[in-house]
Amino acid sequence: MLPKLPLDSPYTSCYCEENIYFLVRRFLEQAQVKDTWDISAVIVSNTTKTVALWSQLKAPAANTAVIWDYHAVLVLRSRLGSHHRLLNTTPSIEEETWIYDFDSILEMPSRWEVYVGKTFPPDSELPSQYRSLFRVVSGEEYLHYFASDRSHMLSPAIAEYISPPPPYPIICGPMAAVHGLTNNLMSHFVSMESTSEGYGTVMDREAFISWCSTSRY
């Protein structure tokens, strides 16, 4: 059965990486979800931090894009194989890849084909500075190593938050704390530079589609 959005999963506008952090944690706490899907956090950005996403709640008008410096979603990718491809049958819910995006106008979760198709146009249709790269990080790694002191949300001119922060304390994963890190969001998750010491694997749109469409086994 496809897991529903937990009622107690926090949401704060403009803090997508933290919203996804808690959703990853909720799903990892559910044995059935862990046994059925690989749980991943996916950070969307590029080297210029100007990615164009469609179907976003913050869009200024219908059928227009939002330009984000980065965005974060959760992906459930099947662990059950791909027997339907061999039999030429329709995949079951448990054999598909699903994407959770708190800030999308699309159904939550959405089948990956629907979400990608309506959110990320082919790279050939976009100027290079608006094309998305995807940093795919396992749920466990995201929980253990993520750290943000929210300083990226402070306006330098007036030292106030650009958007009101969540009411709970800042997040520092246990392994980040062990290494004395309090803030690695921008350097290890959002950065898409080839020299970045980031977690997970960075993919372009084509590679991300291939990853979404292929089950673990």
Automatic annotation (TrEMBL):
Catalyses which reaction(s): N-terminal L-glutaminyl-[protein] + H2O = N-terminal L-glutamyl-[protein] + NH4(+)
Enzyme Commission number(s) from the entry: 3.5.1.122
Keyword Hydrolase: yes
Any one GO CC term of the record: cytosol
GO MF entries: protein-N-terminal asparagine amidohydrolase activity; protein-N-terminal glutamine amidohydrolase activity
Domain called Protein N-terminal glutamine amidohydrolase alpha beta roll: residue spans: 11-210
InterPro entries: N_Gln_amidohydro_ab_roll_sf, NTAQ1, Prot_N_Gln_amidohydro_ab_roll
Keywords, in A-Z order: Hydrolase
Family membership noted in the UniProt record: Belongs to the NTAQ1 family.
Function in brief: Mediates the side-chain deamidation of N-terminal glutamine residues to glutamate, an important step in N-end rule pathway of protein degradation. Conversion of the resulting N-terminal glutamine to glutamate renders the protein susceptible to arginylation, polyubiquitination and degradation as specified by the N-end rule. Does not act on substrates with internal or C-terminal glutamine and does not act on non-glutamine residues in any position.
Subunit structure: Monomer.
Protein name per its UniProtKB record: Protein N-terminal glutamine amidohydrolase
Source organism: Suillus luteus UH-Slu-Lm8-n1
